[in-house]
């Protein structure tokens, strides 16, 4: 042992070299060798490099520390794909410098946020998340709308990352705000993977279906509770509509059957409304249909 | 003795620096804990959670943590080598440069200039500063060790050398960037490799900043403060080599169920399991050292700091590997369980060991007893209670949240919306704020006790003149 005067514990330089070797072996095998491995750089065919506006938005996502609370990786676990959508693929990450998978979900995962909501939804939500969810702990990002994009930084970023752009793309940034950039980024996240719901109802099964709780006041009341937790921020407290989505009366009039309302609420409308069949039972959705019909009837009566 | 030696003044300078950053980092921690349950406590862009959380972690790790560690390394090294510091002036210059670096780092993080890599958030100009500081520090420490008067290197020196080598490797590799502007760079590595290199760094920087240096202190100050020799030198040797070898393989356990190839995830998980053995080697060595006379927990106030500290280390190194297992990760990853885990290490193991070492050092330097053993005990219990409350509330709400995320209705749809899970955290997060406040009061008691000991020491020096 170290009682031996010639042991490694009495030779500091040799000792330091041996320590370096000991820590480098694991590093090389687990971190450095993968750098040269082909399957660590896969790319989905339809994955595109970020545009100047999208990169400006991604830079802001980094700047504001969004990754502290939002992950961007859907795990291949039932509850994850049910809540967020298709699980994350290796080939989506080709242009990610750095990766933004995060490590904490104080807020929901954002890997499939692109195309889930409308631009206007994002604009209003960034400005005041509490208008949507009164108990949300997300800070208001109301300064983004009044701030210009850092054009020089964006251009330099496009250059060092080797993303293609034109002078017009850069010029166009002058008329856009930081909020525009952030929304553009949100809408492109995860868009290389086809948007599909893990669960969905078949439209043909429900198109002509009757609401089993038609004209049931108790059902409409349950629907009201759901509406006030999930729907009011886009369709208005009394179904009068907002700048994000039309009012309930206008919408309901477009549907000839309750079943059609059911299908759209359940499956969502790409780019406009998220699906609900993943977080609501079928009866919940019928309750919402009951409440919507009631709201529409009320409005028509008052007109 | 008329005056403190130059080396002692250097050690104190590093302590003062660390304590200033510590107060800032802890208060920001308290603020962000409130922001978690009430968004109204976000005050504009510079004081919004997304920026402050990074300020909190970096100022505490690189300010409080690394400054006090460097100070204690100087102290330990000059004693174990039986010679003064090789370049004392350089140590003073290093201290001032590092203070500027941490200040620049903090300000730029407030401005939102960050690399978005956990624990490597400083942008590239600040990174360069950190590297310069680390080189200067390493030259001084390694130089002193190489020119030592005591031929045999004691265990603590092994851990100090490992810290210096590993942090240099980790910090430089993970901070390689494509530079766009003075305030913006992009990780050199893309996608899966960006993730893999970052967590190789992220896991090991915590290991070599908050494990190896603290073990160096533990092996030095436990026998010093108890008057009992380390139980087994052979166990020290086995623990050391297996710990530093195995550590570097484990980073991928942070990326379980991500798109990272399965073989890398599994390799990381397996080595994480193996890591339990060397970690507990030191835990057992610590316990067995005090085994001949447990009454020292009562009679030697510092003993209980070290034994509580190593106990948290033992718990940490059992809990950590368990979180790496896929089934456990599926439940607790991304929840508040994880901050609960991290804070047991930092607020328990690291803080208890470092503050005890600082008490010991300041009383040795001035050759006086500390200002108040009673206050040290108060500090101990407040920190302990605050820490335990913090972690337990986070574990409970982490499991609660993990279960709510995966609960299903009879028809296979999700039982709870995301908001349901979030709002359920609030009472626990409020309790966490209370726990944090208790912890901070404990730290302020420490600060007072520490400063008053220095005042006492200075008076003693003056009266001897």
Question: How would you describe the overall organization of this protein?
Answer:
Chain A has 303 residues and is mainly α. Chain A has helices at 12-32, 52-63, 78-84, 119-127, 151-161, 167-172, 178-188, 203-206, 217-230, 232-235, 248-254, 258-267, 282-302. Chain A folds into 3 domains: 8-36; 52-188, Cytochrome c-like domain (Cytochrome Bc1 Complex, Chain D, domain 2), CATH 1.10.760.10; 203-302, Orthogonal Bundle (Cytochrome Bc1 Complex, Chain D, domain 2). In chain A, α4 (119-127) crosses α7 (178-188) and α11 (248-254) packs across α13. Chain A is elongated and about 95 Å long. Chain B is mainly α and 465 residues long. Chain B is 75% helix and 2% strand. Chain B is built from 17 helices and 2 strands. Chain B has helices at 6-35, 49-80, 88-110, 124-146, 155-174, 191-210, 212-226, 233-247, 262-274, 276-290, 296-299, 301-324, 326-332, 337-366, 373-406, 418-423, 426-464, and strands at residues 177-181, 184-187. Chain B has a two-stranded antiparallel ribbon. In chain B, α1 packs antiparallel against α17, α2 (49-80) runs parallel beside α14 and α3 (88-110) runs antiparallel to α4. Classes of the chains: A mainly alpha (303), B mainly alpha (465). At the A-B interface, α1, α2, α3 and α5 of A face α2, α4, α5, β1 and β2 of B.
Please tell me what the overall shape of chain A is: elongated
Average pLDDT rating of chain A: 93
In angstroms, what is the radius of gyration of chain A?
26 Å
Helix content of chain B: over 70%
- SS field, number of helical segments of chain A: 13
Largest two-chain interface: A-B, 91 and 99 residues
What would you say the CATH architecture of the largest domain in chain A is?
Answer: Orthogonal Bundle
Q: Calculate Rg of chain B over CA atoms.
A: 22 Å
Question: What's the CATH topology name of the largest domain in chain A?
Answer: Cytochrome Bc1 Complex, Chain D, domain 2
Distance between the termini of chain B: 8 Å
Strand content of chain B: under 5%
Q: What's the helix-strand series of chain A?
A: HHHHHHHHHHHHH
Care to count the β-strands of chain A? Answer: 0
- Could you give the count of β-strands of chain B? 2
